Amino acid sequence: MTAPLGLRERKKADTRRALSDAALHLVFECGLDNVTREAIAERAGVSLRTFNNYFTGKYEAIAYRQIERMRRSLNVFRTRSADESLWTAITESVLEPLLAEMGEDYAPTRQQLDQLVELNAAIEVRNALAKNLMAEWVEAIAERTGTDPDRDMYPRLVAASIRAVSEAAMDTYIASDPPVPIVGLMRRGFADIVAGLPEPKRESS
After folding, report:
1. Crossing angle, helix 86-102 and helix 182-194, to 10 degrees?
2. Cα gap 202→115, rounded to integer Å
3. Which of 50, 107, 131, 168 has its CA 20 to 30 A from that of 161?
4. φ and ψ of 107, to 5 deg
5. What is the C-alpha to C-alpha distance for residues 178 and 12, in angstroms, rounded to an integer?
6. How far, in Å, CA of 14 to CA of 68, rounded?
């Protein structure tokens, strides 16, 4: 279980979140290409130097909130009962931060989805997400399943599946018209994994 943060660490975490929130708000208001480090720092009420102490650039700041959600999910996963099935533990852990922030039925506006399309297409944002936490997920899954994170493929396959469900759900989420809740898409994705990805039944003509 993660130890409680001290006052200094909490202040740092609050500043990091404030910068990331400012970055995301600016993306929704102005578009990704028009967001700068200076604008993010100004929106968050800090100096550019402070921004540079926390993030290497705007893409890392934008990705941080999703990375933070995944870190919270990982911490929850590590505390789930050992008697619970692996995929139930994964599903509930990954969904916990989303449910805490937006609930089961939240759906975005069309304008927000249009900006998410732009964000999702930015390779820099995807890279910032991809390089974080997957190794930690592999280790946590290996520990729970009694496998070796270096020599066994299983924990890597499970971690890759978590990422695949997250990316597939996001791609479907931003393409939906009318908008739909992402929580339901994530649940469906994990359920399909558990079911062995059965081939969808084709409607007879």
Report:
1. 180
2. 33
3. 107
4. -130, 140
5. 38
6. 12
* First vs last C-alpha separation in the chain: 54
Structure tokens at 112: 């927000």
Every domain of the chain and the residues it spans: 7-194
User: Which pLDDT belongs to residue 4?
Assistant: 61
Alpha-carbon distance 58 to 76, whole Å?
28
Length of the chain in residues, anyone?
Answer: 205
Instruction: Tell me the CB-side half-sphere exposure of residue 39, using CA atoms within 13 A.
Output: 15
Please return the burial class of 138, using the count of CB atoms within 10 Å of its CB with bins 0-12, 13-18 and 19+.
buried
With both helix axes pointing from N to C terminus, report the angle between 134-145 and 58-79 in degrees, rounded to the nearest 10. 10
Q: What is the 3-state secondary structure (H, E, C) of 143-188?
A: HHHCCCCCCCCHHHHHHHHHHHHHHHHHHHHHHCCCCCCHHHHHHH
Amino acid at 168: A
List pLDDT tens digits, range 46-69. Answer: 999 999 999 999 988 988 888 888
Sign for the pseudo-dihedral over CA of 115, 120, 122, 127: positive
7-194 — its CATH code? 1.10.357.10
